[in-house]
Amino acid sequence: MDRIQNGEHMKAWLIRVTVNVCKNKLKSFTHRKMDVYEEWIHFPFVDHRDRFEVMLAVTSLPVKYREVVHLFYYEGYQTKEIAQLLKKRESTVRSLLARAREMLKNKLKGEYDFA
Fold this sequence. Notes:
The protein is mostly helical. Helix content is 65%, strand content 0%. Helix 4 packs across helix 6 (90-107) and helix 5 (79-86) crosses helix 6 (90-107).
């Protein structure tokens, strides 16, 4: 701390330390082995039983379906944007979404009206 000369130097130092801590977190064994979707269960918006059931159904999908559902419904991306993010064709993303919806419909059969 004695070597910090001014506010700009302090800001640059804090940013660098933050970046390094984040990199260490991403490299850690526990972070790499944890499924991001398992963390959803602990979010406060999952209090309602219906949402919890849907969340469990989504998290039980295979990764390739789960990621497009998450990006489309939870993050609000359009299929064109998802295609760019995942480096897939837009038609592939739409097909994955359609299959994921069908899987969710079967998993949640009887609990929701899909009319």
